[in-house]
Recover the amino acids of this structure.
């Protein structure tokens, strides 16, 4: 089993910044990709950003220029630096890990609330 534990969510004013962290532990043999998704109230879960073990990144259009995804392979940890936050960024942010065997794992989520 793989466990993903997110941290760093909270309440921030519009224009502020937050940094999310996600540490993976357990039966990790090989990681293909880690990243972040989010789900706002009444909406479907959507991609925010991902990063492969080689460092290739992919961002949702809404995240480009404001969010930065990074990872520490030695620590099996992925980060999401979020700047210039907007009220529409309010959501539960979920960490995701895709293994090389294409198994998907999810964290329990961390709430980010951006006040106007």
């Amino acid at each position: 089993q793989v466990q993903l534990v997110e941290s760093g969510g909270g309440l921030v004013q519009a224009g502020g910044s937050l940094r999310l962290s996600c540490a993976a532990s357990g039966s990790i043999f090989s990681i293909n990709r880690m990243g972040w998704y989010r789900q706002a109230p009444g909406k479907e879960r959507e991609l925010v950003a991902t990063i492969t073990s080689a460092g290739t990144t992919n961002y949702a259009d809404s995240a480009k220029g404001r969010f930065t995804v990074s990872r520490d392979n030695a620590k099996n940890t992925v980060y999401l630096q979020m700047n210039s936050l907007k009220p529409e960024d309010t959501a539960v942010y979920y960490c995701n890990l895709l293994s090389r065997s294409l198994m998907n794992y999810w964290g329990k989520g961390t709430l980010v609330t951006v006040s106007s």
Q: What stands out?
A: The chain has no helices and eleven strands.
